[in-house]
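On clarity, I found the account of how folds are encoded harder to follow than it need be. Since the whole study asks how a given chain folds, the encoding of that fold should be made plain. For illustration, here is how one protein appears when written out as sequence plus structure tokens:
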Amino acid sequence: MELALASAIGVLAAIGVYLLLRARSFDVILGMTFLSYATNLLIFSGGRLASGKPPVLKDGVSPDLAHYTDPLPQALVLTAIVIAFAMTAVSIVLAIRSRSDNHSDHVDAHEPDDGREAGNGGGA
């Protein structure tokens, strides 16, 4: 289970970094989303993978850490999910506004030069 989780974190982080290095705004937003998924899984895995153990005290079970899972990573991940969703929405709105203002979805707001001048619509 740990190998699968570590592999998933690595793949999500690699996809996120690759997309962050792209020149399109939407790719950068997707890259940030994938990186937030990888970070959430990393935080969640820091709380020890334990299935079937409650995160809060139960009657009849001794109150030591061997019988419970850590509730703090779960709370941190839930908070991070809400914040990431809000920031993704804000980033998408900013990207849409930038595209409408600059008529380009490149991060630096202009298309790469391909030997043509921007004003004359074609070659020399």
Observations:
- The chain has a mean pLDDT of 83.
- The CA atoms of residues 40 and 79 lie 10 Å apart.
